[in-house]
Amino acid sequence: MQLKRIIPNSLTCANLLCGSVAVFMATQEQFLWSFAFILAGGLFDFFDGASARWLKVPSPLGVQLDSLADDITFGLAPAIALFCYLQPIIGWWALIALLIAAFSAIRLAKFNIDERQTTSFIGLATPPNAIFWTSLICYLHSIAVPVWIAWVLLAGSLLSCYLLISEIPFFSFKSAGEGKMRMIVFLFGCCGIMGTCTTIAITNHQIAIAAFAGAICVFWYILINLLTLTQAKK
Fold it and tell me: Burial, 165: exposed, middle or buried (Cβ in 10 Å; 0-12, 13-18, 19+)?
């Protein structure tokens, strides 16, 4: 029984360690590695909760530890990555990007006490937000971009902060039946996006293009949910 209790928390700690390495890689401008460790953290994040349910050993400690780990991997890591990318371009204005870490913490705290989010999300979840920013940075770091793009990214970081704590509903793969059609459309779209980006990356020998698929998939996810919300209001 004791071993069963250790497994989920060990996976959560692995998530936290991946996030810590992602932060370090971002400070070294190794954005592709930072993105890779955030993805690895996402896998550990999925399996820690799943293992707790499968082994029937949920615990209050695990819930709190999970949120702390998530804020490192999906809050601090993308915030540092965006700051490190923007700072050489726009100077200390790039500090604004660190708000992503703060708003991610607020979003995670809200999730812990919001009983409406058992089968879906209210507000954008932190993992897709982290994937969007680090994936996008991987691609932009590999090409030359005009300065105005940096200011657009900074404004975009504020928009993402709003989405994290907004009341906008987002579907979750935890849903039993609700939003199933949206999930199918989303998955088909993701397959097309990843296939196209991977093909272009192989053709051009540029792995950053393949990583860029992450940002496009998250944008697709946000778009589907916003379109559904618009239709529901009509």
Answer: middle
- String of DSSP letters for 55-109: HT---HHHHHHHHHHHHIIIIIHHHHHHHHHHHHHHGGGGGGGGHHHHHHHHHHH
pLDDT single digits (tens) 54-78: 877 777 777 888 899 999 999 999 9
Domains of the chain, residue spans:
2-175
Predicted structure pTM score: 0.92
23 vs 30: CA distance, rounded Å = 10
- Host H or E run for residue 148: helix 147-165
Q: What is the assigned CATH class of domain 2-175? A: mainly alpha
Task: For residue range 153-168, list pLDDT tens digits in order.
Answer: 999 999 999 999 999 9
